[in-house]
Design a protein that fits this description.
Radius of gyration: 23 Å
Number of helices: 3
GO molecular function: structural constituent of ribosome
Organism: Racocetra fulgida
Mean pLDDT: 93
Shape: elongated
Keywords: Ribonucleoprotein, Ribosomal protein
Oligomer: single chain
Protein name: Small ribosomal subunit protein uS10m
Family: Belongs to the universal ribosomal protein uS10 family.
Strand order of the largest sheet: 2-3-1-4
Number of strands: 4
């Protein structure tokens, strides 16, 4: 595990799947790829599992009182990447999307951190463009 230097979150990667086995295997793959790129990556964060239940009538006429119950569980996990260059994160995400197994969904949240005073620099550039 690589320790973060400044502890600034750069990327959060959410995983969803109906089957936890392939998803956990793929998360281990993603963590090993992050380690190979020297990216500080958190451990697997388990998010609450969403359970969806519904009831269906077996027959529309005589068998109305006979019903079937179904259940589907959506398992969710989270990986957090810290203190990494944006281009490295983009390359890592491209590699993960190319090797993603069927049945595993991913959602990416990216952050960009700018230095202090960026607003003043933007105003100065706008003034220079107006003078020209």
């Amino acid at each position: 595990k690589i320790a973060p230097t400044y502890n600034k979150v750069v990327c959060q990667l959410h995983f969803r799947s109906y089957l936890p086995g392939p998803m956990d295997f793929y998360i281990d793959f993603a963590r090993r790829a992050a380690h190979a790129l020297n990216m500080p990556c958190s451990g697997t964060i388990y998010l609450p599992t969403k359970t969806t239940r519904w009831t269906v009538i077996r027959g529309p006429f005589v068998h109305k009182k006979s019903q079937e119950n179904f259940e589907r569980k959506t398992h969710k996990r989270l990986l957090v990447i810290k203190d990494t260059n944006r281009t490295v994160v983009d390359r890592w995400l491209w590699y993960l999307t190319q090797n993603c197994p069927a049945g595993v969904g991913m959602k990416v949240t990216l952050w960009e951190w700018n230095e202090l005073g960026i607003g003043q620099k933007m105003l100065d550039k706008a003034k220079e463009n107006e003078e020209r």
